[in-house]
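It would be a great kindness if you could assist me with a short task in structural biology. A protein sequence and the structure tokens that stand for its backbone fold form the material at issue. I should value your view on which stretches of the chain appear to form regular backbone elements. The record follows directly beneath this note.
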Amino acid sequence: MDKCEMFIEKIKEKYSDIIIKNYKKDTLGQNNDVIIINDNLVFRFPKYRQGIKTLKVETELVCRIKDYLSLKTPYPIYKNFKQEVGHAFTGYKMIHGEPLFKNIFFKIKDKQTVADQLASFLKEIHSIPTDMVSDLDIPIINNFNQWESFYKKVKEKLYIYMREDAKREVELIFDNFFKAKNNFTVQPTLVHGDFGPSNIIYDIDEQRVVGIIDFGSVKIDDPAIDFASMIGPFGYGESFIKKFKNIYPNIDILIERAKFYASTFALQEALFGLENEDDEAFRSGIKEYK
């Protein structure tokens, strides 16, 4: 029995009334294995034990905040939170569309409409009162401590794999970030935490964004975090983010910090791979520094 068949068996054990006509494994997902059933149901199985706890929190969170948001979110219908990897899962109706990767984005003629939709969503989630989710185990990030700790890990664990000039470049980026004291006086908000192209669902026929998925990285943090993936190498560029200004007026203040966060993505991937024995993630993250 392969991994995919095992997941189907676990779903059947819990929900025997589901009629499964077809299924396939989705290739996306760093922290979860994703199975699509009948082209209409999405099931997520955490790959790691910590991911089970995260999925449980995410499920409760989405139930609480969905009415605050103008775009569809993955509302859980099926759930099983057994504390064992390969058994725990959630399932929801698929939000039909395509991840808004660059190959689709650059074909869109009316990019301002897309910008308005995304800006509205981010303004909505960043405006949700944090005390609404204070009883959930959602990380509350101290921006200085977070990045000081990350930088220390980079030096301790990744420097041995990096070129000397790459180390100097990383040091310059972090030194400049730590020197700007206003980077650490930000009012934290609820953030999506992984607001990148793979989690933005776009309907090509309707020519609009129809949903946002994967709330597993939600935290209380600098709202600039949610702009970073759209500025990063797989995103849409700074000029597009500036189109958010009509709906998100202080976007210019956030962009500089978002650019710093985006510059750390490869290091984050390499460190994740190293700490979780994920060789593919490590190689992908470290390659530009070797």
User: Anything to note?
Assistant: The chain has two domains: 3-94, 99-289.
